[in-house]
What does this fold into?
Amino acid sequence: MSMPDDPERLADVRPRSQLGDVFASAARDLPSDAQLAELAAKLGPVLDGPEGTSPKPSNASTLVKLGVGTGALALLVAVGLTLGRSSQPAPVPGTVPKSATAPVAVEPAPAASASLPPQPSAQTPEPPSKAESAAGASSSKAAPVQNKPASEAALLEQARRALNGSPSYALQLANQHRARFPNGVLSQEREVIAIEALRRLHRTSDADQRAGAFSKAFPGSAHQRMVDEAVPK
Amino acid sequence: MSDEPRPSVRQIFDEHARYIWRTLRHLGIPEAEAPDLCQEVFVIVHRRLSSFEGRSSLRTWLYGICIRVASEYRRRPHVRKETPLLEPASESEQQASSPDSALEQRNAVQHLLAILDDDKRQVVVLYEIEGFSMKEVAEIIECPLQTAYSRLHAARALMLSALNAEKAAQS
It folds into this structure.
């Protein structure tokens, strides 16, 4: 807002000068919705966490602090899933590539996720079995289901970490993610985790069904290869 | 202290992020660096929001952070050596109905702003593009009001001169 003594803005002067035209066009130079969505994904814990604190010290939030975004989280999911396969040699993750900080395409998830099959309610999660709890003590002790992680990135990171020791807990968290972030930008990553969790729980038909829904909802997804590996045809 | 409830970081992001991004770009941050710098702004907002006392408006406070983040970036040694004026079309421009025109306009803006030093550039961006009053501009960049006026007049003269020189060269 201008004060009485302020000179008229050049974009408001009529007839408008060339300089006024330049400033008027500058005001239209805004980022796209996709760029903003990507930024929001990068900022996950910062946007949804309590103020005045550092982002939660989860791997995901550490990555955010380091400027690593959605692409890196996808990489994290991929590396985590691969590491979790006991039958395969585990690649040694090196440093996160610089390119992970570069903008990545964020695919709109809402319409796609709406077509996925219904899942058990995230409001009534089944607790992990004693065996799973014992096996996954190190991965699932971070937070019970009731302690909601602040962001979708943090929630999925928690689910990914739970995959090895407690796939049922990982599945609960993935379903909780779907309930809390139905339009989340990490919907594909969530589905990959859920499918892998179903496979490990030997719920083959459920895994097949969810994998089929994934392929229909996200044709050409970069995660399709991982889905195919989890649910061989 | 304002009686208005303090918005959350998410609310601030939803309302201001696109304008913070735009401001960073006009302050000389390259397109490729804008996401990281915007991220820096909101990390600072997250850290400091609880201590925001409402002595200034939230928007003024927010743009103060933005100005300082951009200034700090432009003081980095590797940045000072670079003079990136013209850039390829961004994603949003490629989707625009006339991308060539959008690109030309953006390059014209960046080209003109690039002839200004940081002090004048900040005043022009905040006043001419972001619509702050000159009093708010002076508050954001922490200088006397008369100094802000002087910078604005000097910046306008410089840019007008550059445009005229360009016209003369073309004719």
In short: The two ends of chain B are 57 Å apart (CA to CA).
